[in-house]
Structure formats: structure tokens, C-alpha cells
Amino acid sequence: MIFLDRQARGVRVDWVGLLSLTMGVSFIPHPGKAACLGHKTRKLAQNRVLRGRSPGRALPARAHQINTTWRNSAVTANNSHPELIEKLAEGIANLTTSEQWQRYLDFQSRFQRYSYNNALLIAAQCREATQVAGFNAWRKMGRTVRKGEKAIWILAPMVYKTAQAEGDQQTQPFERIIRGFKFVPVFDVSQTEGEDLPIICNRLDGDDPSGHYTKLVGVARSIGFSVENHTFDGSTNGDCTHSEHCIRVEARNAPAQRVKTLAHEIAHALLHESFESRALAELEAESTAYIVCQALGIDSSDYSFGYVATWAGGSTNAIASIKACCERIQRTSGCILGALETLEAAGQEEAA
59 and 242 in contact (C-beta within 8 Å)? Predict the structure, then answer.
């Protein structure tokens, strides 16, 4: 979901009322903006599910929910894996100098960046939307909107040129002013078909012969979260709702991808009770999932490198952020791996 950019300045709009009256739908705002939307909307924002697109949505478990099993899962030299931080940074650097990355950036540059208010409109009508563009814009990218698809309506400014003063035609450019807004239709990528899109996050195809997914379910339960299989619309792989203490994982994905997604959601649950940067939160969660998967013998680089680079904005930013968050990433991955060790040892004792 895109929550950025071009807003008309100096215009005040009751967006809550506008959505209620014109769309007949309810919505949950982005958590970073909840404070300005009133008490009722803030309560809704507390229950908002964060999207990680892949990927993931997450809200954290509170410290008092972590039971004895989890607290006894110590971070040690064996499970913190500092060498994997370097491997992650190196992999991202290699990806972001590749032709594949450049093609991906060229494709992304064709999309408008929408205002926060339009992002709310998009979310209200199509919660799963990830990339939206107009009918003709999609045609220019070699894709067409499928017949029968329902448009997503956003507001576009009506821009007019002011008349120039006499004698200034050669020296003064036309001044452009906004005199209002109108609804225009856009469509999500999931509503289109045509040329293949450049992909840098490839879902994992491997198996899970050692049953790591089941063990991670035990870790989630140890912090008070249930784990459910779910079939999502669009490209969502999983989500986590703190208010319901529930993690959902896409049932149709390969076992290895499900392991990575669950590790990602558990990392969100532990790290991000509050946060200022969505991009940084996703970087931390996916970096943690990468380390956990590597330690378990699952190579998630085909997915994790692209995911982290996309959220961080490229190689330089990604590597700098990984270094800055290194301790948090290591500590969280170490805790998850330590909890797995504790649960496995407990299971062996019961079997004996």
C-alpha cells in the first residue's frame, strides 16, 4: 500500500465524513496518522493489521504475555549468528547492482505516488491493493484491465491555468491553480493481465522436512499467539493481529515460504509494539526471518534480499539500516532460535 506524496496544500477535508457519505464504507487509517483522526478512529487504528508484502502485517505481543519458556530462551553465541548479518548485507549489495534490480526500479518509476488521503480511499475500497494505476497507464506498461473489474476511485486535483497579465505573455509562465477535486478510476495490478512484471521477491519453493513450521507455531503460542492457515486475496503471505493475538499464514504457499513468513510475523510481534518507520520495521522483521531461516537450513535469500532492499530504498540505505539495527535483529533472531531449542529440549524430555 502506498501512503506517500502529492497532497494539495491549504485544503482541509473531512476525509472520515467524505468516505462515510460517498463510499458507504469504513476504513482503518495508517497507524502513523491515527492521532489526528479522533478518538474513535484511534481505537480502530490500534487494531490495524500491518501489511508486509509481501508481505507481512504485524503487531507485537506485550512483554507480560511472554511465558517462562520464552524468557528462558537465552541469546547465545550459537544462536545469534553475527556472520549472517554480513551475508545479508552482501546479498543485498549484489542484488542492487544487478540488471534485474534496475529493471524493477524502472518499472516502479512509472507509478504515481499517492497522498495519504488517497491511500485511505484505496485501502477502503481494496484492502489488498499494492500497485495502482489508471486504465491507460496500465496499457502503456503492456498490461490491460480484465473485463468486469471494479474500479478503485481516488481524488485527482482539477488544475487550471490562470490568465496572464497583458504584455507578460513572453516573460511570465502560466500559473497553475487547483480549483477542486474529482473522482478518477484506477486499478490494482491484481486486476490486470499482460506482460510479466519484474520480480525481485521470489516466493520460496522448498520443503520443510524437519518440521520447523510446527516448532515455530509452538514459539508463537509461547508468546500468546495462535497461528491459523488462511487463503489471502492478492499477494499477501501472512498477517498478525495483536488485538486478537492471531497470526495467519497463506495456506497455499510452499512449506519453506510458510516457515519464513511465520518467522517474519513473530519478529514483528516481538519488536514493534510501537514504531515510527514502517520501512524500518519491515527491514528488521525480514532480516530476523532471514537469519532464523538460514540457521534452520532454509535459504530465504531469493525472497529476503529483494524484500529488505525494496523497503529500505536500495543498497546503501539498506546496508546502513541493517548495521544500525544489527543488535536488535541479532537479539530477536537469537531469542526465536533459543526458544526453538528450549521447546525441542522439552519435547525430548517428555519423549524420554
Answer: yes
